[in-house]
Amino acid sequence: KRKIFMESFEKVDKDIRYIFSTMTDNLGSAWLEVEDTDNIFESGLSLMIQFPNKPARESTSLSGGEKTIAAITFLLALQSLRSSPYYLFDEVDAHLDAQNTERLLKILIEKSKVSQMIIVTLKDMIASHANLVYGVYAKNGVSNIIKYKSNIEVTV
Amino acid sequence: KRKIFMESFEKVDKDIRYIFSTMTDNLGSAWLEVEDTDNIFESGLSLMIQFPNKPARESTSLSGGEKTIAAITFLLALQSLRSSPYYLFDEVDAHLDAQNTERLLKILIEKSKVSQMIIVTLKDMIASHANLVYGVYAKNGVSNIIKYKSNIEVTV
Amino acid sequence: VHIKKVEIYGFKSFGFTNKVINLEKGMMCITGPNGSGKSNILDAIAFALGENSPKSLRVDKLHSLFHDDNNEQKRKNIRVSVTFDNSDRVIPVDANSVTITREMPFDGDSIYYLNGKHVSKSTITDLLDVALATPNRLNNVQQGMIMRIAELNSEERRKILEDII
Amino acid sequence: VHIKKVEIYGFKSFGFTNKVINLEKGMMCITGPNGSGKSNILDAIAFALGENSPKSLRVDKLHSLFHDDNNEQKRKNIRVSVTFDNSDRVIPVDANSVTITREMPFDGDSIYYLNGKHVSKSTITDLLDVALATPNRLNNVQQGMIMRIAELNSEERRKILEDII
Ligand SMILES: Nc1ncnc2c1ncn2[C@@H]1O[C@H](COP(=O)(O)OP(=O)(O)OP(=O)(O)O)[C@@H](O)[C@H]1O
Ligand SMILES: Nc1ncnc2c1ncn2[C@@H]1O[C@H](COP(=O)(O)OP(=O)(O)OP(=O)(O)O)[C@@H](O)[C@H]1O
Ligand SMILES: [Mg+2]
Ligand SMILES: [Mg+2]
Questions:
Q1: Cβ burial B98-131 (10 Å sphere, 16+ → b, else e)
Q2: Do C82 and C9 meet the contact criterion of CB atoms below 8 Å apart?
Q3: B33-77 residue pLDDT tens
Q4: For residue range C130-146, what is the model confidence (pLDDT) as tens digits?
C-alpha cells in the first residue's frame, strides 16, 4: 500500500513541478511534500509554492490570486494519475491579475491537447485564445446561444 | 418585540428598494418579504430581486454576478439600521461583467458620502473613480505602498 | 474521447425549445453577461451525466430545475443530452459517438437513454466511471469554488490521492 | 468618523519598516498585482481593531502574522495603528483624532494603546462598539466571501436583522 502510494505521489509531484515552472517560465517552482514519511497515512501532503522573486510558502498562506494558480496546478497534476476526458471550469480566473491570467492561459492551452477544456470566462484574454467561443445571452428571461469562430475579439 | 422588528424591517426594505432601483436606473426592483407574518420569529426573510427584463426571483437562485449585486444591496441597506463608519470590500467585483461593475460603482460612490469605502479591486473602472488610489507592490517578498492621486488611469 | 454536442431543453434558464451547442477538442470558451446562462450550461452537462444533488445543481430542490418562465408549461419534461466523440473507444461502447440523454418528468423519476435506448442510471454511471468521465469536484470546478480547492488542508490532499489510487 | 491613517510594521508581507497609508473620506481604492499585499492591509486594519481569530486573519495561528522573511528578526514586535478622524465625536473620546494601536510581541499577549496610552482590549472594543466601528462580516467582506452573503438563507437574514436591533 505504501509503495503504491509513493509511486503515485512521485508522479503527481513531478507533474506539479512541470506545470508550475511552465506557467512561470521556469522562474518559479512548486512541489509536493509528505509531512511525515514514517506515518504517511496519518499525516498530510503539503503543496509548496515559490512564485518568482518570493520565498517558498505552503499554498494555504498564499494570496487569493496565488491560491488560484496553486489550485489549478494541483488539479491538472492529478491528471497524471487519472486523466479526465474533460474539465469544466467556471470563472476560475476571477481573482487573477493580467500576469497570472496569462500563466493560466498558457497551461490551459497546453493541457487542452490532452483533455477537453470547457471554460466559462468574462475575460477577453482567455476567450480570444480558445478554439471555439460560445456567447450566451438572455432575452425575456430565456437563454440563447450564439457561436463565434475562435480568435475573434469577444466583448463581454 | 414584533413592533420593533417590523419598524426595522420597513426601514431596510425601503432602502433595498431605493438602492437596487438606483443601481438599475429604475429599470429593476428589489424588496424584502417576510415569509410568514403570523410567525415572524420562526420564519425567514426573502430577498426578492428583479433585474431589468427578467422575472423576479429569490436572491439565492440568481447567477453568481447577480448574487453579488443582491448581496451588496442587502449589506448597504442595513446601514439604515446601523451605519458603519467604514466598509472594507475585498474584490467584491470579481464575478461582475461591465454593466454590473458600473452598477456597483454607482452605489459605492453614492454610499461613500455616508460611510468611508475602502475597496480592493483589480478593475480600472472602479479604481479610476476613487477619491484616492493606493498601489501595492511586492519587492523581495516585502509589500510597499505608493499613493496615486485619484482619477489617474491605473493599470494593473 | 471528448464532448462534441450538448442539447438542452427546459432546463433552468433554457426555455422549452431545444438549444444545441456543438463542441470540439481543445479549449472551448463560454462567455456572456451576468445572468445570461453560462453556469447553467455546465449544470446541464453535470445533470445529464447523472448529477442528482440539488446543491451541486445550485437549486433548493430538483423541481426548481424546470424552466419557470411559463407555469402552464410545467407539464413538459426537461431533456438534456451530452454526446461524446468515442472514436478512441475510451467509453466501453462499440460506437463512434455515445449520446447520454436524461429526461426528467415534472412528477416522476428521471429516465436515461444511451444512444436512444432506454437504460438504467447505473449503466450510465458505470460507463462514465470506466472512462473517468463522471463529473466530480476535480474535473468540474463551479463558480467561486477554486479558492476552496486551494484551501484544502494537507490531510484532505492526501485523501484525494488515496481515493484516486 | 472615518479612518484617516493606517501604519503597519512587521505584519505579514509588510516588513520591519513602518509603512504609512493616509486615507480620506469617500471612496478609497487599493490595487496592485496578485500577491502584492492588498488583502493584508485589510487584515492589518481588522487586527489593530481587535480581530483575534487566526481564520479571520487568514493564517493558521497568530504566530504566522509575523513577517517571515528574516528569522532572526522574529524577536521584533508587530505593530499596527489605525487613526480615526473623530471631529464628529462619534467615538466617545474627547479628541479630534483617535489612534488605536495594537502591538504583539513574539511570545506574549497583545498590548493596546489609545492615543498613546496603554489601555485594556475591552476599553478598545467598547469604544468601537459604540461607534459601530468594530470589524464584522457586515462591514468587512473578505475576498471570495461576497457570494456567501448572497447565499444566506431566509432565516439567517432574519437573524441578522434581529441581532442589529
Ligand atoms: N428554473 C429557472 N428558470 C428560469 N431561469 C432560471 C432558473 N434557474 C435559474 N434561472 C436564471 O438563470 C439565469 C442564468 O443563470 P447562470 O447562473 O447560468 O448565469 P451566468 O451566465 O453564469 O452568470 P454570471 O456571470 O453572473 O455567473 C439567472 O438569472 C437565474 O436567475
Ligand atoms: N507572515 C508573512 N510574511 C511574509 N509574507 C506573507 C506572510 N503572510 C502572507 N504573506 C504573503 O503576503 C503576500 C500578499 O498577500 P495578500 O493576500 O495581501 O495579496 P493580495 O495583494 O491580496 O493578492 P491577490 O490579488 O492575489 O488577492 C502573499 O504572497 C503571501 O504569501
Ligand atoms: Mg455563472
Ligand atoms: Mg487579496
A1: eebbebbbbbbbebbeebbbbbbbbbeebbbbbb
A2: no
A3: 999 999 999 999 999 999 999 999 999 999 999 999 999 999 999
A4: 999 999 999 999 999 99
Neighbours of chain D (3+ CB pairs under 8 A): A, B, C
Residue B139, by phi and psi: left (phi above 0), alpha (psi -120 to 50) or beta?
Answer: beta
Give the span between the Cα atoms of B39 and B37, in whole angstroms: 6
Give C-chain residues touching B53 at CB under 8 angstroms: none
Q: Which tens digits make up the pLDDT trace of D67-87?
A: 986 556 557 899 999 999 999
Bridge-based pairing state of the strands B132-139 and B116-120: unpaired
Nearest CA to ligand 1 atom 1: C12
Of the residues A49, A58, A63, A100, which should be mutated to test ligand 2's pocket, given the most ligand atoms within 8 Å of the CB? A63
| DSSP for chain A, written as a single string | -HHHHHHHHHHHHHHHHHHHHHHTTTS-EEEEEES-GGGTTTS-EEEEEE-TTS--EEGGGS-HHHHHHHHHHHHHHGGGTS--SEEEEESTTTT--HHHHHHHHHHHHHHTTTSEEEEE-S-HHHHTTSSEEEEEEEETTEEEEEEEETT-----
B57 in contact with chain A, both atoms CB, cutoff 8 A: no
Which of B64, B94, B140 lies at the smallest CB-CB distance from A95? B94
Answer whether A51 sits within 8 Å of D35, measured CB to CB. Answer: yes
> Do B72 and B107 touch, CB atoms closer than 8 A?
yes
C138 in Cβ contact with A75 (< 8 Å): yes
Instruction: Find out whether the beta carbon of D122 lies less than 6 Å from any atom of ligand 2.
Output: no
Average pLDDT, chain B: 94
How many Å apart are CA B56 and CA D33, to the nearest integer?
38
User: Rounded to whole angstroms, how far apart are CA atoms D117 and D120?
Assistant: 10
Subunits in contact with chain A (3 or more CB pairs closer than 8 Å): B, C, D
pLDDT value, residue A151: 53
Nearest CA in chain B to D69: B141
Please report residues of D whose CB lies closer than 8 A to that of C34. Answer: none
Is residue B95 a contact partner of residue B72, using CB atoms and an 8 Å limit?
Answer: no
Distance C73 CA to ligand 3 centre (A): 26
